[in-house]
Specification:
Elements lengths: L9 H7 L14 H14 L2 H14 L7 H11 L6 H7 L1 H4 L6 H7 L5 H12 L6 H15 L3 H13 L7 H8 L1 H13 L7
Helix pairs in contact: 3-4, 3-5, 8-9, 8-12, 10-11, 10-12
Length: 199
């Protein structure tokens, strides 16, 4: 025990340990607490270091990141929603494979009412001069303003279109990780699943 401190470096553990402080009661192993500690340790790493730790988990799945800068960006985007490196790798599948669209998520977000805004957004994305948040964000805002939608409706529709699920890192991060061509192709395919007569 060290008061309220729960996270320690190896050096701190060594310096604070004494036999006199060892409790007599049986130790309890708490897997959920261990995951929390792991998540906190991942958050403390730099994106580059976390990316390097993540790399073997991606390679075991046969996935190869395009470069180290992209890998660091992936790690930074994913770690807020994961407690382990395995969870990050699992969640990153949409970056390396064509995702299977979750039917429930598609039924909730890929709606005829959103299709006109999604089409206008697609046109804007196709003409975007750069694939950065500073360029992407105004395109979303313009589509929202024109069609009177809330960000959640459009962002979730795009999220389901490009990742297959309704949970992911922030949508601009997702689009940047996927890149222009793959993002556009997936949005086009998603639009094709919305009945044209209902648009």
């Amino acid at each position: 025990s060290a008061g309220d401190q729960e996270l320690f470096t190896l050096q701190e553990l060594v310096s604070k340990f004494t036999l006199e402080a060892v409790g007599k009661s049986a130790a309890v192993f708490n897997p959920e607490k261990l995951k929390w500690v792991n998540a906190e340790k991942m958050k403390a790493l730099s994106p580059e270091a976390l990316g390097e730790a993540l790399l073997p988990h991606l390679e075991r799945r046969g996935w190869k990141p395009p470069d180290r800068a992209w890998l660091a960006r992936l790690a930074a985007s994913m770690r807020e929603r994961a407690q382990t490196l395995v969870e990050i790798a699992d969640a990153a599948a949409f970056c390396f494979t064509e995702p299977e669209r979750d039917a429930k998520a598609a039924g909730k977000w890929l709606l005829p009412a959103v299709a006109p805004a999604l089409r206008d957004l697609l046109a804007g994305l196709e003409a975007a001069p750069a694939w950065e948040e500073s360029t992407l964000k105004p395109l979303f805002e313009a589509a929202l303003a024109k069609h009177g939608l809330k960000m959640a409706s459009l962002a979730q529709a795009v999220r389901v279109a490009v990742t297959g699920k309704d949970v992911s890192p922030p949508i601009y991060d997702v689009l940047r990780l996927l890149g222009r061509e793959r993002s556009l192709a997936r949005v086009r395919r998603a639009l094709e699943t919305i009945p044209a007569a209902a648009v």
